[in-house]
Every structure is written in C-alpha cells, then in structure tokens.
Design brief:
Elements: H1 4-13, H2 36-43, H3 48-59, E1 64-66, E2 71-72, E3 79-90, H4 95-100, H5 110-115, E4 121-125, H6 137-145, E5 150-157, H7 160-166, E6 170-175, E7 184-189, E8 193-195, E9 198-200, E10 205-209, E11 212-216, H8 221-243, H9 248-259
Parallel strand pairs: 3-4, 4-5, 5-6
Antiparallel strand pairs: 1-11, 2-6, 3-7, 3-10, 8-9, 10-11
Cofactor: Mg(2+); a divalent metal cation
Organism: Arthrobacter nitrophenolicus
Protein name: Putative 4-hydroxy-4-methyl-2-oxoglutarate aldolase
Amino acid sequence: MTTLEQEYQEYEAAGRIWGLVPQERIKKIKFERVSQDVIQRYLAVEDLTTSVSDILDGLGIVGAVPASYLKPLQTGRKVVGPAVTIRNMVERKTPTQGYVDKDFIRMSTRDIYYLSEPGDVLVTDTGGNLDISNMGGQSCTVAKTRGLAGSIVYGAVRDASTIRRLDYPVWSCGVTPITGKFRIEAIEMNGPVRLHDVQVRPGDLIVADDSGVCVVPYEHVNGVIDQIEQIAADEAFTANLITQDVPLDELRPHFRKRYS
C-alpha cells in the first residue's frame, strides 16, 4: 500500500503536480471511485436530483442542496461523477499589497485538475462567498481539457459567457467580476468540504441538474440507485394501470405501497 508521499512523488514524476499548492495541503491523491457503469445508471434517471433526494431522506442523510443556493450557469445539464475537493479561505493581505509584493497566486485550481481523473466533479468550498471569483474561463478550459465532468462552486464564478461558450457545466452561488487572485487561497485539497449544509468527501458521488445538487456518500452509491430503479419500475407499472382506467380498488394498493 502506497503512502501519500509516494503517491505525490509518482504524480510528480508523471508531470501531474502543478506545484502552486504546498504538498502538506493535499490530503488525498488516490481513492476509490464509483464505476462508470453505476454513473451511467444515474444519468439514465429522468428526474435525477429529486429522485436521489427522496432516497437520501429515507436513509436519514442530509445530502441535497436546492438550486436556490447552487444554480447552474446553463440549464438542461445533468452531471454525475466522483468528487474532488478544494477548501478556500480569504487572504489576510489586501489584494493591492499582494500585487505590490508580487505574491504567488494561491487560489490555484490547476493543482486539483492534474490530480483528478476524467469524469471527476470539482467541488470548491469558499463558504458561499458571493463577492470573489473561485474560477473563470481559463480555469474551466483546463478543467474541460483534463476531462472533468463539471464543477460545483460554493461561492462565485466569473467569465460566465466564456464558461457557457465552453459548454462546461458549472453550478455556483453567484456570478461576479471580481478576481480571486490575491484574495483567496487554497487551504486544503481532497479533504472534507461543505456545500451549504451538506458535507462532501473525496469520492462521494456528485449528482447535479436544474433542480440543484445532491451528494451521495460513497458507501451508499449502489444502494441509492438500486432503490431509484425499483421505484421507477413500480411507478411505470402504476402509470400503466392509470392509463388503462382500472378501478380505484386496484389502484389503491399500489399507491399505499409507494407512500407507506
């Protein structure tokens, strides 16, 4: 079993360490990811986040964030993939002083892109800050080139027109013109983060569509989709009975089963 230090050296030798974020701030590099077969099963669900939210409720898991808090920059998109994470904080020094001192830009998302695998979803936590941009067009260009499925930003983004032109899926709390350079720094990568009131850990499954974002803990991923598929089959059967205009006495048992 490799250590984090060995994994770091392996990725560095492969040219996958950008190097702007100190090594000690990277908490995980390799971790278990959900299989593509399971991801495709989720993507096949029509009302995706509403279905996932219902099952998470039944499991007693806080895992859904409404689009009221995390809005898609483009509607009509659906994203499912394993989470990779960044936690940011506001810099102590003023941006002007950072420019004067020629500081390094410590908000880099590029480090996480090169640590990620195709199909991953970046989850960035800046505490819901609506003023400062977490990422813009150039960052999303790198993300798309590296094969990420999308980004969920608990904070703001900028270059909205460019991001839409790139056709790169992004959910965020808001949009701003103000750069994050010399204003925020990456405190931790691939550690636990927060989306509104939901905890996210690397490897958890991120599910996002027009209704919002859901986080399925890794250990529950298979069970959640199994339940969703079973409910969909039951509802399709019930819908068929309704269209056949069967008597209510035949319909009631199916509704009791669904809502009991």
